[in-house]
Specification:
By secondary structure, the protein is of the alpha+beta class. It has one domain. Helix content is 55%, strand content 16%. The protein has 4 helices and 7 strands. A 3-stranded antiparallel β-sheet has the order 4-3-7, with helices on one face. Helix 1 packs antiparallel against helix 3 and helix 2 runs antiparallel to helix 3. The two termini are 38 Å apart.
């Protein structure tokens, strides 16, 4: 591998060959950058993918989370104002309908989503640290970016 003088200490304006160690270090940097981009894509996919509930798979993108939060607020207000239990039907990820969906179920879904998001960012941090601390291509090869994301969720 050859490097431009801007990248290595060179004599004059000549290009100088990299040592094997320098070439490996450059290859590690390139691979790390690519792996971090993959890692970000996986983080986003799992943060906004689906979670598996007892009622089925639930979409957890931002729009769906907003709808869930509004339904939870409406349900709580309905129960407070009427003294009657709230229930509704909910369209799941596969377009099936789950019913009855109660305030307790909506609260459980909110906790499940919150736990998934916390897990995703924690796992991202662990993998990011592993990638950035790797010193060799072999160490990077030993990091599986696709494992460990799932807490009942899928991208």
């Amino acid at each position: 591998m050859w490097a431009h003088p801007d990248n290595v200490a060179a004599l004059g304006e000549e290009w100088q060959p990299l040592t094997e160690a320098e070439a490996e270090a450059e290859a590690v940097k390139v691979r790390q950058a690519a792996m971090i981009e993959q890692l970000k894509a996986l983080r986003d996919a799992y943060e906004f993918g689906t979670v598996t509930t007892p009622q089925g798979k639930l979409q957890i993108d931002e729009r769906s989370q907003g709808r869930l939060n509004r339904a939870l607020e409406v349900g709580r207000n309905y129960e407070k104002l009427t003294g009657q239990p709230f229930s509704t039907a909910w369209r799941m990820y596969d377009n099936s309908w789950a019913a009855p969906i109660t305030v307790a179920i909506l609260e459980g879904w909110s906790l499940l989503i919150g736990g998934q998001v916390q897990h995703v960012f924690s796992h991202y941090g662990v993998l990011y640290a592993q990638v950035m601390s790797a010193q060799t291509l072999a160490e990077l090869d030993g990091i599986d970016l696709r494992e460990g994301w799932d807490v009942g969720a899928s991208a």
